[in-house]
């Protein structure tokens, strides 16, 4: 899990994680901190940057809005249903952190 310190999420630099794993960790912590299962693409980009991600914004956006999103056209060989689109640029975890 990332470590929250001084308003910044820090990823464990010793263990290399996939973009999906890193994003799920950051989003779960973001949802817990906000107290509601609703977040924007920009919030995810900002929090992943604060966590020290190695992934480009374009990769994060593609994963959130397409590759890991319920109900989108499947343009990728491997897809997951981690997030659902609930509005323009707004998403929710399919499984809230309390049920994971």
From TrEMBL:
InterPro entries: DUF7669. Pfam families: DUF7669. Residues 25-93 form the DUF7669 domain. This is DUF7669 domain-containing protein. It comes from Rossellomorea pakistanensis.
